[in-house]
Amino acid sequence: MRYLVRDRILGIGDDYWIEDDRGNKVFLVDGKAMRLRDTFELKDAGGRVLVDIRRKMFAVRDTMVIERDGEPLATIRRKRLSLLRNHYRVSLADGSTELDVSGRILDREFAVEYDGELLAVVSRRWLHVRETYGVDVVREDADPALLIAVAVCVIHLAQKEREDG
User: Fold this and answer.
1) Confidence grade of residue 164 (pLDDT, cut at 50, 70, 90)
2) Most buried of 28, 44, 63, 158, CB within 10 angstroms?
3) Using an 8 Å Cβ cutoff, are 152 and 9 in contact?
4) Is the separation of the CB atoms in 133 and 127 below 8 Å?
5) What would the pLDDT profile of 115-159 be if each residue is shown by its tens digit?
């Protein structure tokens, strides 16, 4: 399933819809303004919060955490010893599962993999609408909310890294 994301991810306090490939509003990204740390909520079309996305305040490396129902679901950070500048590791809360995110993050051209198997592709190439990118969830059994949240996080972290120098 392919989802279309308007590229306003980085504005805290901004809300925007994520649509499916038929133009139906599927998820709402609710940016929380007036918070000390970067915070987003990913909601379904009915307004139910699916995941919370927060930037950890006191971490050695920039880190974002995805929570579901108040419980940690995943932690995202840039891979420590990567020769590729745009390589992130997603550690799931179960402690044994890690997803790899690599590609040109700021260009919105990257992949999310688990153990070498493709889960999702993020790309602008398929789209003709400016400032929009697609998240194509490849596996049927994958959690689209989690994969969209991962895309939001890695783009946010890469943008922060670029701004910080």
Assistant:
1) confident
2) 158
3) yes
4) yes
5) 999 999 999 876 666 678 889 999 989 999 999 999 988 988 888
Q: pTM here?
A: 0.85
Task: List the domain boundaries for the chain.
Answer: 2-164
What does the pLDDT look like over 19-60, one tens digit per residue? 998 999 999 988 765 444 578 889 999 999 999 998 766 555
pLDDT for 112 equals 96
Query: The tokens 């909601």 sit on which residue?
Result: 43
Quick one: DSSP state of residue 33?
Answer: -
CA-based nearest residue to 3, from 61, 44, 41: 44
Please state, in angstroms and rounded to a whole number, the distance separating the CA atoms of residues 101 and 119: 10
The three-class DSSP label of residue 145 is helix
- Reduced 3-state DSSP string for 88-116: EEEEECCCCCEEEEEEEHHHCEEEEEECC
CA distance 57 to 54: 9
Q: In the structure encoding, which two tokens stand for residue 137, read together?
A: 């969830």
Dist CA 143 CA 119 (whole Å): 9
